Structure formats: structure tokens, C-alpha cells
From TrEMBL, chain A:
Belongs to the UPF0065 (bug) family. This is Tripartite tricarboxylate transporter substrate binding protein. InterPro entries: BUG (IPR005064), Bug_dom1 (IPR042100). The keyword Signal applies. The lineage of its organism: Bacteria, Pseudomonadati, Pseudomonadota, Alphaproteobacteria, Rhodobacterales. It comes from Thetidibacter halocola.
TrEMBL record, chain B:
PANTHER family: TRICARBOXYLIC TRANSPORT PROTEIN. Residues 17-435 form the DUF112 domain. It holds the Pfam family TctA. The keyword Zinc-finger does not apply. It comes from the Bacteria. The chain crosses the membrane at residues 42-65, 107-132, 144-161, 196-214, 320-339, 351-374, 386-406, 426-443, 464-483. This is Tripartite tricarboxylate transporter permease. The lineage of its organism: Bacteria, Pseudomonadati, Pseudomonadota, Alphaproteobacteria, Rhodobacterales. InterPro entries: DUF112_TM. Keywords: Membrane, Transmembrane, Transmembrane helix.
Length: 333, 500
């Protein structure tokens, strides 16, 4: 008993006093929500080595895939809140509750750093009978039930963009063909299995540059300097201003309850790492917008993102449960 | 001329050559241990080689890839435990050979055939990449579905003995593959509301259990018997042997390249299809298939190594990964500041030729490392069973844990191991289970994609099958393979032969 008590006191003293000063005193585990070679994986593997240098410790990254990232999220949520288990994820968890995929979201985490966000792009097969966004809308209206859109399941980027198009242009009758990721869907697009795919700019840009698919519009308020000459959807239909800018994002998180000084140390390390010239070049080359935010700013971004997206999906009838049930307020209320 | 220089980069720089060699050597062992996969090794290397130049990083990764695909055959032959899914077919005839004391010969043939297959894959990559990738892009969801059906029909050649038991095993595999959240709609299937089941069942865990643990349990029956003594007479196969199998290896290599180049299918399916092909075209094998036929080693081993070159084809020409490993390599190129995509071949042809050069070097290293140290390896089979069985158990547990660093995978593995033991005990083949797991999603996802694209109209679906030449060929192949396994066909064939 005495020994246990002593151990407990010692542990308490360690966590309270020395641990923070010495963090990190052991390996940090980085749990990547998505598979090796994907966008999240690439972003995390290219920023973390710089953060390691600043932290003076090592971050061992591991891909833990499955259930739209929920397996990784649950793993980190169930680990100790000591800053030794990081969640490296994308936007998906913010929709778990309304999509019926789980009962947790980033609300149970502290954003160490929201690194960057992507811009969605509408691309089409080269043989598709339209070349611009306006022509596409006109064609779909004239030929209902004929155009095939790629999708990556409910809550994925294509479903959100499609919901946005429906909200702005009125219900469009298209076929949504499901794929397990934007990579396979873009492959299908090039082979003619689908006609249109809403994808993150970075995933499609090389194929667009090579002329293997055509860009219809950037789903943003303005044109993107990576793709000059491709109009923005907002330029065609001003109604988009309500929903944009919108895009997937990448961030590093720790469980709530992690000591403040540990969070501060991690945040500082990732903020500094994200300023690395190579990393910036890498991200900009792929059309990502760098954010590098943390703390209250990041929390505000997350809740705004969640409100906008969850209600958009709710209004499109794609959710399993109303955002209201989880206290997600309608934007502007 | 510059292409030649880029191609030779790796050969002229000792440091790069050393890295390819090191990678290949490591790959053979990573591949040989079930659960340690090439995919895992390469993704770890991304972080490890982060601060390196792109050339040495890629050289090391390619070495691991080539060596790893080959390495899977080692444990398949020696212990009946495939080191990777692409070596499942290798175990079918390789293990019986080892049981006859011919493990050395089996490894020798496997190595030389992997070398030949590897070269054919690289050759097609170097000379015809754009054509093959154009062809691969033509595959529509319905073609993938037909390909998966063709794959399911392999149950016939994988089940020794009872076909009914084989079909049962295959169906079980398909069901196992369907567990978890459906990746297309996120609906839960066979999860019984358990979080444990949400992510599905890792099929590597199933494979390790069914082959590894069940093998260990089965060996317990004769724990007191002496192990088979291996006769190491000839390791390098004679020229005559290679010549004899050359036509077959060319055919199975082509299967490997094409299946490898298709984004969505890889070396595992290629090896199984090649095995089936060998079984069909080999009229009179010296030893029956499943009992240690050399053709049963030639086919899968040429095919899975040819699939390596195949997988690079869409990666280099379109920036589309041909399999999981090339997907990670695309990420690696991106991290190193290149833009992997269709423009890579135009903007940076040097990278293409450098990769081809590395593949060639890795292939030679594979031959070198494959043919040396066989004596030492075959000692594994000669170990007393009281040492071997605990070793297999240990390897299986470590391997299953390593897949996802998850203890639940270890439980799955042990459960399927015990289940597999009883299946074998009652004469149910295990190959079809793994086949079912591999093909489950390919079949299911693509069927749904295909029918959703046609607005759920079966008429339009079949119209598509008949009007597309590619679909039609696959459809006819499915019908022919199916009919050829029915009694009607055999009856008709025997009648025909009598008349002629």
C-alpha cells in the first residue's frame, strides 16, 4: 500500500512538475486516419519531420484506417491525454455524428494545428458533352438522369459539393456512382465510367494539366491561381456565396485534458514546421491553402465548418440524424 | 541516349546500387515473414528517407518491393505459410515438394522464375507502358466485376477433392470480406453493433491464422516424428528445365503484367489466375497439381513478379497507383518535390528511366540473394517439430499484431487458425477462403457501381456487356470457364473424342 501510494505521489509529481518541462521524454505516436499514400498521409509525413526537429523528440507515424477514420479517432480518444498520442486527421470526424458514424468528433480534441485546407474542383471526362460549369448545368437539366457523378459515400467531399450544387441550382437529376476514395473515382473518370467528379484540386491538378480530364469550375469564390482561366462557380451563380469558401482540411489533434504546456509546445512546433519553405512549396504546388492556425481560432474554424456542412447535408436529406440533436446550430443563428 | 544514361544511373553509382541491394535483401526477409508486408515497409521508409535525396530513397523502396514480392514464396514453400497473399498459390505445390525433401529445388525454380517474370514485367513497363495503361483505363466497373467472377471460378482449381467443400470455403471467404462498414455507403454489415467489427476483419490476419496456426496445430499430430531430410542436390534449375517451362512462364507473366497494371487488382489475384491457367494448359504434369507440380510454382511466381513492373505502368504514365505499394511511392515522389502524374514522363523522363534501372538492378539482386543461402533456409524444415511449432506460433502472433498494431487482429488470427485447423481436418480447402476474401470487395463494389451507373436497369446492364468488346470477351470467358467445369462439358468432350 505504502509503495503504491508512493508511486502515485511520484507519478503525480512527475506529471505536474518535471514531465512538462521535459516533454517529450519518450516517443510520440502519430496516428494517421487515412491510408499510406493518400492526401492526409502525405501532408502529415511531410510536415512532421520538421516538427520533430523543433520538438527535439521523435514522432512515430502509423496509418490506422477503417470506418471513415473513426477507428483512428477512437484509438486516440481512448489513449491517455498526455500528449504522446497525436491524431492526424482530415475533416471527416466533424460529420460522424450527423452521418451516424460515431458518437465522437473533434469536440473531444484540442486542435494542435490546422495545417491547410483544399479547394474543391469540378472535373469532367474529356468526352463529356460540356466544357464549362454553366454548360454542365444546362446539359443536366436537358438530360435528366443521364450524367454520372462520382461520389465517395455520404459525407465525403463529392456529396457535400453535390448538395451545394443542388441547393444553389435546384435539384439536379444525376446518378451518383460510389467509389472508395477520390483516387479510384478519378481513375474511373478517365476511363469514362463516370462523367463528372468533384475532387480536391490537388488530386486532379496533374491530370488536368496533362489534358487527361477537363476542369469545369473551381468550387470557390474566386479563380485559383493554380488553374488560371478556370472560372469559379460563384462567378456563374452568386448563390454560392452563402456556402463558400468550403473545403476539406488537415489537422493535428490531441485529446482534451492534455496539459496546456504540452499543447502549447506541440502547437508551437507544428506552427514553426508549417513555415518550412519545402513544406510550403509542396502544399502550394498541390493547390492547398495554408492555414497554420490553433487555439481559439482553430476552434472557431471547426465549429463554423461543422455548422455549415452539417446543415447543408441535413437540408439535402443526406444525414442520419439532425444536427440539432447534437447542439450544432444552423449557421447565422 | 539520355534515356540510357538515366537508366544506367543506378548501375554507375555504387551508393545507389548498394541501396537497391540492401533493399532487396531486406525485402526478401520482410516478405517472408507473414504479417510484415512490403506496403508497411515502404510506408515506414517514407519517414525514414524523408531527408534523403529522391534517388536513394526510391532505390531503397524499389529494392524492398522486388525482394518482398519474391520473399513471400519462401515461407510458403518451407512452412506452408504464405508470407504474403500473392504467395498463396505457391504454397499449393511448393510445400508438397518440401515435404518430399525437394525444398532446395523448389526454391531454386521459384527464384529463377521470379527473375524471368520480373524481367518481363520490367520489359513491358519500359517498352509499352502507354499502351498498357490505355488498355487498363478501359476497364469499366462491369469489367472488374466480370474479372472478379472469373476469379471466383478459380475455386474449382484451388479445391483439391470436393468441389462442394471448395464452394463452401469460397462463400465463407466472400462473407468474411463483407464484414465491417461498407466503404461506399458506410452502412454496417455483419458487425453486430460491435465497434471491434466496424473496421472489418483484416484479411492478412485471416490468412496468417488459416495457414500458419492451423499448420502448427496440424503438425502437433506428428510432433514425435522425425522431420523430412532435405536432399540438396541441385538448386539452380538446369537449362532444360527452364526451357521446358518457358512457354508457360511467358503466358503467366503476361497475365501478371496486365492484372498488375489494372488499378484495383494486384499480384495476389494475378498469381491465383496464373496458377489456374497453368492447371488448364498443362496436359501432363510430371507430378499432379497440388502434389508438388513444378508448373504450380512456375505460374504464380512468374505472375506475381511480373505484376511489379505492371503496377508501375499506370503509376508512371498516369500517376494512378497500380497497387498499394505504388500508391505509397506516389506519395514519396510527391514529398520529394516531384509531381507524380501524367506529366512526370514528359517533364522528368529521367525519373522513369531511373526507376526502370532500379527495377532491373533489384531483379538481379533478387536472383543473387535467392540462390544463395538456400541450404541454411532448408534447415528450417529439418528442425525438430518441437522447435518449429512454437516458432510458427510466435511468428503468426507477431505478424498478425504488426498488420495494424492491434491486439484484436491477433484474436481474429487465432480464431481463424483454430477454425482453419478443423476445416483442414474435415477436408475443406483453405485456398478458396482467401480467394473469397480477396475478391469479395472487388466483386461487390463493382457490381454496385455498374448497376447504379445503369440506373439499376438489368437490361441496360446486359446491353453494356454485349456492346463493349472488352466486357464481351470477359463474359464469354466466364461462361466458358464455368461450363468447362460442369459434367455436361466433360460428357460432351468424351463423346467428341470417341467420334474423332
Amino acid at each position: 500500500m505504502k509503495r503504491i501510494l508512493f508511486g502515485a505521489v511520484a507519478a503525480l509529481a512527475l506529471t505536474a512538475g518535471f514531465a512538462a518541462a521535459e516533454y517529450p521524454e519518450k516517443e510520440i505516436q502519430g496516428i494517421i486516419q487515412w491510408g499510406a499514400g493518400g492526401s492526409t498521409d502525405t501532408v502529415m509525413r511531410s510536415v512532421t519531420p520538421h516538427a520533430e526537429e523543433i520538438l527535439g523528440g521523435s514522432v512515430v507515424m502509423q496509418n490506422m484506417t477503417g470506418a471513415v477514420g473513426a477507428i483512428a479517432l477512437n484509438y486516440v480518444a481512448e489513449a491517455d491525454a498526455d500528449g504522446y498520442t497525436l491524431l492526424m486527421g482530415a475533416e471527416n470526424p466533424m460529420l460522424y455524428k450527423v452521418m451516424g458514424l460515431g458518437d465522437r468528433d473533434y469536440g473531444e480534441f484540442i486542435p494542435v494545428s490546422l495545417l491547410a485546407r483544399g479547394t474543391p474542383l469540378l472535373v469532367a471526362n474529356n468526352d463529356a458533352p460540356f466544357d464549362t460549369y454553366a454548360e454542365m448545368i444546362a446539359y443536366i437539366k436537358a438530360n435528366p438522369g443521364e450524367v454520372r457523378f462520382g461520389s465517395t459515400g455520404p459525407g465525403g467531399l463529392p456529396s457535400v459539393v453535390t448538395a451545394m450544387i443542388n441547393a444553389v441550382e435546384g435539384e439536379l437529376d444525376v446518378i451518383a456512382v460510389p467509389y472508395d476514395g477520390d483516387g479510384p473515382a478519378l481513375t474511373g473518370l478517365q476511363g469514362g465510367a463516370i462523367d463528372v467528379m468533384p475532387a480536391v484540386l490537388g488530386a486532379a491538378i496533374e491530370a488536368v494539366r496533362a489534358g487527361n480530364m477537363k476542369a469545369l469550375a473551381v468550387v470557390d469564390l474566386t479563380e485559383n491561381d493554380k488553374l488560371p482561366g478556370v472560372q469559379s462557380v460563384a462567378a456563374v451563380s452568386p448563390g454560392y456565396a452563402t456556402y463558400l469558401p468550403w473545403g476539406p482540411f488537415f489537422g493535428v489533434f490531441v485529446k482534451k485534458g492534455t496539459p496546456d504546456d504540452v499543447v502549447a509546445k506541440l502547437s508551437a512546433a507544428y506552427a514553426e514546421a508549417a513555415k518550412n519553405a519545402e513544406f510550403i512549396e509542396l502544399m502550394e504546388g498541390r493547390g492547398f491553402t495554408l492555414m497554420g492556425i490553433s487555439g481559439a481560432e482553430a476552434d472557431a474554424f471547426l465549429s463554423k465548418w461543422q455548422q455549415g456542412t452539417a446543415w447543408l447535408l441535413q437540408d439535402a436529406g443526406l444525414t442520419k440524424a439532425s444536427p440539432e440533436e447534437f447542439g450544432i446550430a444552423r449557421p447565422g443563428q | 541516349m539520355t534515356a540510357l544514361m538515366d537508366f544506367l544511373t543506378v548501375l554507375t553509382q555504387p551508393q545507389l546500387l548498394l541501396l537497391v541491394g540492401l533493399g532487396t535483401f531486406a525485402g526478401v526477409y520482410v516478405g517472408a515473414i507473414p504479417g510484415l508486408s512490403v506496403t508497411m515497409a515502404v510506408s515506414i521508409l517514407i519517414s525514414f528517407t524523408f531527408s534523403w535525396d529522391v534517388h536513394p530513397a526510391i532505390a531503397l523502396m524499389i529494392g524492398i518491393y522486388m525482394g518482398g514480392v519474391y520473399g513471400g514464396s519462401r515461407t510458403a514453400i518451407l512452412l506452408n505459410i504464405p508470407g504474403a497473399p500473392s504467395a498463396i498459390a505457391t504454397a499449393l505445390d511448393g510445400y508438397p515438394m518440401a515435404q518430399r525433401g525437394e525444398a532446395g529445388t523448389a526454391i531454386g525454380v521459384t527464384t529463377v522464375m521470379s527473375f524471368i517474370g520480373g524481367f518481363i514485367g520490367i520489359g513491358v513497363l519500359a517498352l509499352a507502358a502507354p499502351f498498357v495503361s490505355d488498355f487498363a483505363l478501359k476497364f469499366q466497373p462491369r469489367d472488374y466485376m466480370l474479372l472478379a467472377i472469373l476469379g471466383i471460378l478459380l475455386v474449382g482449381s484451388l479445391s483439391q477433392g470436393s468441389l462442394v467443400k471448395g464452394i463452401f470455403a469460397g462463400a465463407l471467404g466472400i462473407a468474411i470480406g463483407a464484414v465491417g462498414r461498407d466503404p461506399l455507403t458506410f452502412a454496417e454489415r455483419f458487425t453486430f453493433d460491435l465497434r471491434l467489427m466496424e473496421g472489418g476483419i483484416s484479411f492478412i490476419a485471416v490468412m496468417i491464422g488459416m495457414f500458419g496456426v492451423s499448420e502448427a496445430l496440424l503438425q502437433l499430430h506428428h510432433v514425435d516424428k522425425d522431420a523430412v531430410r532435405q536432399k540438396i542436390t541441385r538448386i539452380v534449375p538446369s537449362l532444360a528445365t527452364v526451357k521446358k517451362h518457358l512457354p508457360l512462364s511467358l503466358q503467366t507473366s503476361s497475365i501478371g503484367v496486365v492484372i498488375g497494371a489494372l488499378p484495383g487488382t494486384g499480384g495476389d489475384i494475378a498469381a491465383l489466375m496464373a496458377y489456374d491457367h497453368a492447371k488448364r494448359v498443362t496436359k501432363n504434369p510430371e507430378v499432379p497439381f497440388g502434389k508438388g507440380a513444378m508448373e504450380g510454382l512456375v505460374a504464380p511466381e512468374t505472375a506475381n513478379n511480373a505484376a511489379v513492373g505492371g503496377a508501375f505502368i499506370p503509376m508512371m504514365t498516369l500517376g494512378i497507383p497500380g497497387d498499394a505499394v505504388t500508391a505509397i511511392m506516389i506519395g514519396a515522389l510527391f514529398i520529394h518535390g516531384l509531381n507524380p502524374g501524367p506529366m512526370l514522363m514528359i517533364d522528368q523522363p529521367d525519373m522513369f528511366w531511373f526507376i526502370v534501372g532500379c527495377l532491373v538492378a533489384a531483379n538481379f539482386f533478387m536472383l543473387l540473394f535467392g540462390l544463395t543461402g538456400i541450404r541454411l533456409f532448408t534447415k528450417i524444415v529439418e528442425m525438430p517439430r518441437s522447435v518449429l511449432i512454437p516458432l510458427i506460433m510466435l511468428l503468426s502472433i507477431v505478424g498478425a499484431f504488426a498488420v495494424n498494431n492491434s491486439i484484436s487482429d491477433v484474436y481474429w488470427m487465432l480464431g481463424f487458425g483454430i477454425f482453419g485447423y478443423f476445416m483442414r481436418h474435415y477436408g475443406y480447402p483453405l485456398g478458396p477462403v482467401i480467394l473469397g476474401v480477396i475478391l469479395s470487395r472487388l466483386l461487390d463494389d463493382n457490381w454496385r457501381r455498374a448497376i447504379i451507373s445503369e440506373r439499376e436497369d438489368l437490361g441496360r446492364f446486359f446491353e453494356g456487356v454485349v456492346t463493349s468488346p472488352l466486357s464481351l470477351v470477359l463474359f464469354v470467358a466466364v461462361i466458358l470457364v464455368f461450363v468447362s467445369q460442369t459434367p455436361v462439358w466433360r460428357w460432351g468432350k468424351s463423346k467428341l473424342f470417341k467420334e474423332s
